[in-house]
Amino acid sequence: MGRSDPEEGQLPAPVKPPDGGWGWIVLFGCFVITGFSYAFPKAVSVYFKELMKDFHVGYSDTAWISSIMLAMLYGTGPVCSIMVNQFGCRPVMLIGGLLASAGMILASFTTNIIELYLTAGVLTGLGMALNFQPSLIMLGAYFDKRRPLANGLAAAGSPVFLSALSPLGQVLMEKFGWRGGFLIMGGLLLNCCTCGAVMRPLDMGMKRKMEKTQDKYEAKEMLPIGGKSEEGISATDGNKKGKKAKKKPKKGKKLLDFSIFSNRGFIIYTISKFILVLGLFVPPILLVNYAKDTGVPDTEAAFLLSIIGFIDIFARPACGMVAGLKWVRPHVSYLFSFAMLFNGMTDICSARASNYTGLVIFCVFFGISYGMVGALQFEVLMAIVGSQKFSSAIGLVLLIEAFAVLIGPPSAGRLVDALKNYEVIFYLAGSEVVLSALFLAMATYCCLNRGKKKEPPAEKNPSAAGGSDTEEAESDVQDAEEHGSDNHQLDHSTDNTMVAASEEANHVAEEQSREGGGCPQGDGEVLARDACNADQTVERDRF
């Protein structure tokens, strides 16, 4: 009971996350995928000067390569969700790894900037998108109690790979040129296929075998020993098949579940995340130019980003550990709000930093707050919608974030060109991040927590939150009750028939004894004695 066959288009019952075991291999794969997805568009910037010389284009033209990669990573979220829901995580990731690698390999043979946009931008960006989203889905499937820590460790892949890919790209460009560097980078992206291969879906085969064995064992215990037990088992299997044929088929999994928009928590999270992305990426993008304008040498200005990355490496796992504490996890949305508030206030307070020491202090605090935001963003989303609907939720959220990414940093660049003042930009970016933090905290408290207090306990519906893993269990329980009631009615009718037959046999025996047949009375034993006469035998056969 409660099982379903994938061959019939029904969803398998959710499996309890193991919180370890093979999940650690999945976590390492997610670490690598996250590192490539977020760090690769930034690491490609080391080739921009050579591309400008070969193709005779400006910096803004080459910067579109990274922008297209990020746009594909965010904007193709719904497409990834549909493919994951249709084919599963592992096939999608294998295809994504091949596309990402093919894009960079083909880019090494391009002859103009437009071809670079189509290969390194569109093709590689699409491949990384098809790897990034399924890896997060598999991470949520393998971890539950340790999920905050797992998300923090996986998110640490971004700063680690950024600190490794940028120097590697510089070395490759010096030895092999940008074409050789692109070719080798394409080979490195084939590791995404390896990470996709380890994303093994949770096995349901052992669970089905155990339940089938248990059913047969129960049938043998209930039926008499002998040949009739095998007949009973076959009859039980036949009854199950008949019930399965009569039972209405369950609905297949939707390709893209828009019902999550009925979840108030998801709406609040999406709005807050859109406001956050408008200002979150602006300071690190403008930091190097801001430092140069204040008189900081080029090498020291570039080192500021390394400080942020180094702090970020330790901030993300540490924040994941804190979020996994028993007294913190139920309030993880408020911790996420604090992280955003911390980040926004860091931008505002450092807007007037005019020397290198002040900028270093800003980078330290920005690295801590930025790491906290990166470690908690997907953990909060998983907690809101649950693992069953996370694949659709993350795709829609990334699509909405794509618009914010295309609005925020370009608008900040235009304001810098118009005002020639970085201080205003830092104030504006920090204010947007603070606004998103206040909105998330206040909306969560007013709209969600108070709503839960007002609801009576009897009317709570676990599946209404959209993130419950027991949505399929309700229909299974109902089927089990119907199956149990049918068995009860069958047993009751069988008992009634046996009682009626016994009473009829006793009545015939009493009549024969009155006629002097000499057959002793008993509970059915009269009909089985060899001493009975022929009339009694005829009477027994007629009965």
TrEMBL record:
Record-given protein name: MOT3 protein
Transmembrane segments: 21-40, 63-84, 91-110, 116-142, 149-169, 181-202, 266-291, 303-325, 332-353, 359-378, 390-412, 424-448
Span list, region Disordered: 228-248, 452-543
Xref: Pfam families: MFS_1 (PF07690)
Signal peptide: none
Assigned keywords, A-Z: Cell membrane, Membrane, Symport, Transmembrane, Transmembrane helix, Transport
Primary residence: membrane
CDD domains per UniProt: MFS_MCT3_4
Family indicated by similarity: Belongs to the major facilitator superfamily. Monocarboxylate porter (TC 2.A.1.13) family.
An annotated GO cellular component: basolateral plasma membrane
Protein topology in the membrane: Multi-pass membrane protein
Gene3D superfamilies: MFS general substrate transporter like domains
Gene of this entry: Slc16a3_0
GO MF, one annotated term: symporter activity
UniProt organism field: Psilopogon haemacephalus (coppersmith barbet)
Acidic residues bias locations: 469-479
Record domain Major facilitator superfamily (MFS) profile: where: 23-448
Annotated compartments: Cell membrane
Bias (Basic and acidic residues) ranges: 480-494, 504-514
Origin: domain of life: Eukaryota
